[in-house]
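Batch manifest line 54
LIGAND: zinc ion
JOB: complex structure
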Amino acid sequence: MLCCPSCKSAEIFVETGGFTGMIYRCKRCGYRGALVVEVDEDIPEAERKKREDG
Ligand SMILES: [Zn+2]
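JOB STATUS: finished
ARTIFACT:
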């Protein structure tokens, strides 16, 4: 899961991606840049298993 480095919101999405890298934009604070914080999703073990099984 990607988080905004500025406001820590998860409402961040890819604006452009290409050879130069990805540019992200944050819906909440308007941050725009290549740097984002990646955090592990907080999924319970049971839920994680379910997802792995497809
Ligand atoms: Zn933000």
